[in-house]
Amino acid sequence: MPDLGVLRPPATILFGTEAVLNIGAVAVEHGRRIVICTDQHLAGSAHLPRLVQLLEAAGADVRVIAGAEPELPLPAVEATISAAKRHDPQCIVGFGGGSCIDLAKLVALGIRFGLPLSRWYGENAVSAATRPVIAVPTTAGTGSEVTPVAVLTDPGRAMKVGISSPYLIPRAAVCDPDLTHGAPPEVTAYAGIDALAHAVEAHCARRRHGWNDIGGRLFVGRNVLSDVFALQAIRLIGPALAGAMGDRVEARESMARGSLFAGLAFATAGTTFAHALQYPIGALTGTPHGLGVGLLLPFTMAFNARASVKQTAEVADALNAGDDARAAVGAVRKLSRSVGIPGSLSEIGVTRAMLPTIADRALEIRRLVENNPRPIDRAGAMTVLEYALDGDPVELLAESRK
Ligand SMILES: NC(=O)c1ccc[n+]([C@@H]2O[C@H](COP(=O)([O-])OP(=O)(O)OC[C@H]3O[C@@H](n4cnc5c(N)ncnc54)[C@H](O)[C@@H]3O)[C@@H](O)[C@H]2O)c1
Ligand SMILES: [Zn+2]
User: Fold this and answer.
1) 38, 72, 135, 395: which sits with the fewest CB atoms below 10 Å from its CB?
2) What is the average per-residue pLDDT within 19-46?
3) CB of residue 170 inside a 6 A radius of ligand 1
């Protein structure tokens, strides 16, 4: 079977120090009435007046809405859509971490088609272009600046929900590593390990054979185009994460580039079972997305290794750790522990009694389950969870080889 490749990047990606100087020209291409979606903290930072000034210098009429709240609760998203609508923006700039960029995507969708947003939960439910979005990330990072996904918290649902559609891909991503300076160490660690997880999961995702096998899927599994970005992302992120927490300039640059590459990889390859498990675990424990994913990743890698032998070895090599699954699992575990990610689910308040519910809810997320390299059923999910509760991923690797 020939190797297939799928890539759906934004029309424009600008990367590098001072890339933000181009924001005016990039934005007014879409119109002069612009809304910036951000959060309260960044609205008070020195970056924001500069962004506004750059846009106004290009002739834009700018409104700032600081409506992003942690984990994007639906009421805050709807309030932002109403406020943005009054300005009737021709373009929405998402300025901040994943929360602000996801909010910009939801505002672009809500303004174009109205509420409720629940009409578009899931995959491929949006049927036409939204208002254009320009993403300016300040964390490294969720990759949201290049992905077709927005994630929010609907109080009526047990878990966070996603809206995934090619129409949600930003028209432009303006990635200036300088904007990530000053992100607190915890935010840097969680966003950075999430980026590593995007790259590792994209690289090891199930491979599909032939276009019929891909069907109408948005996330098609690992492929020859996503592989290039995934491996390069791992090479960049591995040695840079700790330095970025200390605000070192070169490390911040590597992380910004690595998270962008990881985003490009998982935007089509998709993620797998660590992300599926974090949906219910995040809801039950209130832990940040990156913390949970970083904790779970070595365990899911160990479980999956026998179905992605070559890819897991390549992860080890990209991390300069060796050339087999044991080295890969050990290196990811060490990296995640070194930046303060807890080592076990019991440390974040998960109890043994919660495990069956977590397994059942994670298995409901078919898009991620079907993308996992090793088929996973309830028994498999429980095995991963039992080890993640208070065990060692290297022992799970040995057990999974039997
Ligand atoms: N759409 C996607 O593809 C995708 C992928 C992964 C995660 N996500 C979502 O992204 C969100 C997490 O995003 P995140 O980790 O980037 O964090 P975030 O947007 O939640 O921000 C976390 C905190 O860091 C602060 N911050 C951000 N940049 C800063 C800077 N440069 N200096 C100082 N403070 C700064 C913010 O103000 C905020 O208080 C979650 O809601 C998650 O579900 C989306
Ligand atoms: Zn993630």
Assistant:
1) 395
2) 97
3) no
Q: What is the pLDDT of residues 63-85, one digit of tens each?
A: 999 999 988 999 999 999 999 99
298 CB near ligand 1 (under 6 Å): no
Q: What does the alpha-carbon distance between residue 331 and residue 397 come to, in Å, rounded to a whole number?
A: 14
Model-wide pTM > 0.90: yes
Q: Is the CB of 187 under 6 A from ligand 1?
A: yes
Instruction: Count CA atoms closer than 13 A to 208's CA, side-chain side.
Output: 22
In this predicted structure, what is the pLDDT of residue 1? 62
Distance 234 CA to ligand 2 centre (A): 14
Instruction: Identify which ligand lies nearest to the alpha carbon of 71.
Output: 1
Spacing, Cα 96 to ligand 1 middle (Å): 7
Using the structure block, give the residue that is written with the tokens 């923006």: 89
pLDDT at position 393, please?
97
Output the CA torsion sign for 292, 295, 297, 300: negative
- Contact present, 368 and 270 (Cβ < 8 Å): yes
- Tens digits of residue pLDDT in 184-225: 999 999 999 999 999 999 999 999 988 988 888 999 999 999
Q: Are 373 and 204 in contact (CB under 8 A)?
A: yes
Q: Does the C-beta of 144 come closer than 6 Å to ligand 1?
A: yes
Paired tokens of 384: 């991963």
Cα gap 299→329, rounded to integer Å? 8
